[in-house]
Amino acid sequence: MFDRYEAGEQAVLVHINFTQEGEWDDLSEFEMLVNSAGVETLQVVTGSRQSPHPKYYVGEGKAEEIARAVQLSEADVVLFNHALSPAQERNLEKLCQCRVIDRTGLILDIFAQRARTHEGKLQVELAQLRHLSTRLVRGWTHLERQKGGIGLRGPGETQLETDRRLLRDRIKAILRRLDKVAKQREQGRRARHRAEIPTISLVGYTNAGKSTLFNRVTEAGVYAADQLFATLDPTLRKIDLKDVGSAVLADTVGFIRHLPHDLVAAFKATLQETRDADILLHVVDASDERFRDNIAAVHEVLAEIEADEVPSIVVMNKIDNIEGQAPRIEYDDEGVPQSVWVSAIEGKGIDLLFDALSERLSEEMVQYTLCIPPTHQGRMRSLFFQTKAIQQESYDQDGNLLILIRMQQADWSRLEKRESVVLRDFIVT
């Protein structure tokens, strides 16, 4: 049923440029995608056009050139760095006599190879089925269709209609199961919200080093590799931040230019972790010449999932690949940390990243000196000790406990509500 092929095949790549300047940068990224899928590149066919051809996407002459390249190289598949219509795929397959897969199909195939968890596999299957639903006609051209007239009547339902019905049923079943997953994730988020535990979500372009940074910060040991979409299934780990306490760090799937909309829709439950985060760590490969374009591509996806309003810190990663770059924090005009330059693989600048996170998340901190009489000292000191809020303490000549506390405003308000004694009565003015 699925538009996918086994890893290890050999392919002819096709990249057409539709601009005057010549954007060949996308070709190198496409070659990385192909390599990530485990496919060997035999030949690359490039060209330029003003607009896509309605029949072949490329011109008829270029289509013939692709067919000859397939024949001479004995390739198993043709991979296009573009989104093709179902009709264009069928026409090209008929001409080339082999499988033709577009950029969306290739990315879906990589995701299918990477999925490990039950949720991840469901999300990938949903995206594949939605993509496949427009291409069903190709697989059934050899089967009987409805016919009219005596002796020419076919079955009451064509094979194509049967498959479309089965496809719709399967999509509905997956959506029901993913809805359960979404509810479970929502329960976890509500529990963290009730406990006032901030959530930090790693986002960024694929292969920017998010998982390496995640491992460096949390020692989680998640899979990290120098390839596109090495991470697919989200991972959550607890970290401790100065002046903030416990926080949850989430590693998420990487973004890419022209990320298929079906994929974004299928991964809605996973990407919700990003949308509901208290702050985003936008990891950028600072050594990539196209890092500004990559930042813009990530912002587009964040806007699509309605996460563009979430506060963020830019993490300029891989400074070990840039000569003369040292770890540092960059602040805005108001002294708020905006970006941190680090090397996740070497561990440089990680302490600065923690400092920047603490500073951004502890903006709503309160600090008080309290004078607590002996009758309340045991209970009050125990409460503040549990929240790690005690900065220093001493006793005056009357036996009162003088204690300097620093904690989040939310924790202070919660303690005030919970205690029968109003804490503000103990504040030293």
From TrEMBL:
Binding site for GTP: 204-211, 229-233, 251-254, 317-320
Compartment annotation: Cytoplasm
Keywords for this protein: Cytoplasm, GTP-binding, Magnesium, Metal-binding, Nucleotide-binding
Domain (Hflx-type G): residue spans on this chain: 198-365
A single GO molecular function term of this UniProt record: guanosine tetraphosphate binding
Binding site for Mg(2+): S211, T231
Named cofactor requirement(s): Mg(2+)
Subunit structure: Monomer. Associates with the 50S ribosomal subunit.
Stated family: Belongs to the TRAFAC class OBG-HflX-like GTPase superfamily. HflX GTPase family.
Protein name listed in UniProt: GTPase HflX
Species of origin: Vibrio aerogenes CECT 7868
